Amino acid sequence: MFKLNAATLTIATALAISVNAVNLGVRADEVLCRPTGSFSCQGSPNLPFPTLGQIPNFPLVIGFANTNDNTSPNCGDCYELTHVVNGETRTRFVTVGSNSDTGFINMCITEVRNLTGITGPLPDPASIRVDLVERPRSLCGL
Ligand SMILES: *[C@@H]1O[C@H](CO)[C@@H](O)[C@H](O)[C@H]1NC(C)=O
């Protein structure tokens, strides 16, 4: 017989929370901080802004996998990003505007510092973990 105990409850809760969420590392990227910086979705019909700085929630614009060029349907997708610092969950709404390596997002370094509270050298990108859940684009001001 299946016995319900604290451990199985913890696992069940974790699974419920992780539905549709993707857990990724975070690479700090200076280019994503520059209002006139280049972005791979530049010219996308989904993100019709000539400059990065015109994206409504700039500088909360991220690079995310499968956004290789401005024809990607992922351009302009809006995600709710969460990161836990000392038990406190921090939330940001971020717009996909550029590309990244699989398993990571790229994010403006100032926003990485704000999110993590790290002021000194940033650790290995793979050790900065965030969860992303897709949300309506309107939550990113689109
Ligand atoms: C940190 O980010 C939050 C949420 O985006 C924002 O409200 C706050 O002003 C930022 N703080 C700094 C110092 O940029």
Automatic annotation (TrEMBL):
Q: Which GO terms describe its cellular component?
A: extracellular region
Q: Which InterPro entries match?
A: Cerato-platanin (IPR010829), RlpA-like_sf (IPR036908)
Question: Which cell locations does it reside in?
Answer: Secreted
Q: Which UniProt keywords apply?
A: Secreted, Signal
Q: Which organism is it from?
A: Coprinellus micaceus (Glistening ink-cap mushroom)
Q: Any idea what this protein is called?
A: Cerato-platanin
Which segment of the chain is annotated as a signal peptide? 1-21
Protein family according to the UniProt entry: Belongs to the cerato-platanin family.
Q: Which domain of life is it from?
A: Eukaryota
